[in-house]
Amino acid sequence: MEVIDNVIQxxxxxxxxxxxxxxxxxxxxxxxxxxxxxxxxxxxxAFSEGDRPADMKQFFKLFYIYIYVFAIIMAAPFAFTIVxxxxxxxxxxxxxxxxxxxxxxxxxAIATFTRDYIEEVNRRSNWVGKQIDEVIALPFNIAVYTxxxxxxxxxxxxxxxxxxxxxxxxxxxxxxxxxLFLDEKTRHYTHAYLKNLFVCYMMIPAFLIANALGSVIxxxxxxxxxxxxxxxxxxxxxxxxxxxxxxxxxKYCRELF
Length: 257
Hints:
mainly alpha, 8 helices, 0% strand, elongated, membrane, transmembrane, Transmembrane protein, transmembrane helix
């Protein structure tokens, strides 16, 4: 999809530039130094009288937390890449199968809308009604549809851009967030980081689900009211209802935990 692809390309360009890589490397270096310092301190406290661990099992039991933290810090960049690849595939599937309008170019979307509109008019109206709808109402509805489609695409663009900015900032502070888990007094910062990471990963799926749900519900509401979903009223109702769901989707993501 053009919208999400443009944002992903920008995300990768910013993430891989020298400034971002330098900041991430610095945070990683500081985190590793802190882990090593805490490990050395714990070693001295555990074996202050010159004792040594009896075997590897005792050593691991005493210091496993530092080993795990060090391993997670080193593996974090690869984990982000794997998760982003998996989520990207899921997003593409959701967009391809459930976001037809948003996924299409403007010309393709207008052609599809016109075809569906005429089919709906033919099903509902007599000959006179068909002529009025196709000659007079259709151009106005196409104009409204085009404006609202552009608006939906740009809202999705803003959602995606904000999400990837959010992700870059979280990636930068990941090493620091991991080492804060070592101390009970700072562990809540790690929990807050994980919550924010969850919200970040849920933003685009939440938008796509809200968009699909809004389309289905608004169509059903129009049918219950005996109205054509392709009319100006139907299009405006669907758009306003989707805006409501978009706002709620972000709010509910933050309130899940």
